[in-house]
């Protein structure tokens, strides 16, 4: 039988161990609490720094923070192909309002206002036709074309320079060498293609690899509800094989998907202007009337989702994760703000909604390889 003194000693020992464990637990909890507090403090400091940068930029452009709605647009960012260049999923011509709302990709502009160049992604396109007398001047043409563009933009370099339409009279090697040259000269960081076929892009990539040159990172292609084959079938294969991304333009099909042509061609619309007879003929054709009938059905879906038809059309383009950025062509601040709200519609495009839209459109392309988009 244990004595009273030994029992007392055992109790004291057990109590001491218990208190020691409690002290250790309290210390660990305090350390975790301190770590969480430090993480929260760092988040607040980072947020304050970002806010200060935004306020400085807005002040520079005479815009108040209250007038800026960048926090409500929910702008998303994606890598341009498999390159390290990260761009906003919506791009636009240079406008301060666009930058305030999170857009960092600006495509082909003539002027450039003061701003934070390091946070912007500026692209431009060089075009030269098939004049056989200038084939031997490829380097000079690219240099002169890009330098003139940079001078107009008042920039030292662009992030991406696009070769706009291939020249069938110029060997692919010369084109790739010329684009590599302007990058090596520091006038551009990357180069891409615009309106090139998949075979031409693949040839450019092969030439670049063969001669240790710089391959293209992106193709600019038309993409909307009535133009799907290239972006949904051909470009995904190039992305998986060689990492070429997709930057798309004309999400509203030059305004045809805006809904303004559902009852014909209204006065002062784009299709009514001189030089756009082709567009008017397209709208009034049998195929154009079928498209407008489909748009009326899609309008009903837009109303169910609480958005406009243009917002639905832009969100539909964005739902394709193979698209790095959708280039917008807004002609007013009201149009820009309406288009930006398409990002808020994107989460509403469930698989059932997309399937319903595909059923209405009836033009979903299929490829031998099923790449998820």
Characterise the protein shown here.
With 373 residues, this protein is of the alpha/beta class. The protein is 49% helix and 13% strand. The chain contains 13 helices and 10 strands. The protein has helices at 4-60, 70-73, 96-100, 138-153, 172-184, 198-210, 229-242, 277-284, 286-305, 309-318, 333-340, 342-345, 351-361; strands spanning 77-79, 86-88, 90-92, 105-107, 121-126, 158-164, 188-194, 218-222, 245-249, 323-327. An 8-stranded parallel barrel has the order 3-4-5-6-7-8-9-10, surrounded by 4 helices. Strand 7, helix 6 and strand 8 (218-222) form a beta-alpha-beta unit. The longest helix is centred in the N-terminal third of the chain and has 57 residues, at 4-60. It starts with a helix and ends in a 12-residue tail after the last helix. Mean pLDDT is 78; it is low at 108-115 and 128-141.
The residue ranges in which pLDDT falls below 50 over 5 or more consecutive positions are 108-115, 128-141
The largest beta-sheet arranges its strands as: 3-4-5-6-7-8-9-10
Shape: globular
Largest sheet composition: 8 strands, parallel, barrel
Tell me the strand percentage band: 5-15%
Reading the helices and strands in chain order gives: HHEEEHEEHEHEHEHEHHHEHHH
Assign a percent range to the helix content.
Answer: 40-55%
**First-residue to last-residue Cα separation:** 78 Å
User: Over all CA atoms, what is the radius of gyration?
Assistant: 28 Å
Summary, kept brief:
This protein is of the alpha/beta class and 373 residues long. Helix content is 49%, strand content 13%. It contains 13 helices and 10 strands.
